[in-house]
Amino acid sequence: MSGKRYTEEFKIAAVKQVADRGHPASEVAERLGISVHSIYAWTKRYGVPEVERKANDVQSDEIRRLKAQVKLLRALTRP
What is the pTM (predicted TM-score) of this model? Predict the structure, then answer.
């Protein structure tokens, strides 16, 4: 892993090349200098409508917050 960070716009543009224009994921990945795994992960995330993606983000944030709260409560109640 190179540790490179890509903008959301870059990721969406890469997904559009695969989803909308029908280019093979391997070709898009090679052309952009990224892994095919990244293309598939981005497709999973950005291949859904923005409204649905934002709702999923809110839900994921809430789950993360609740898990942290459960972890804290368990730590406080252990003998």
Answer: 0.69
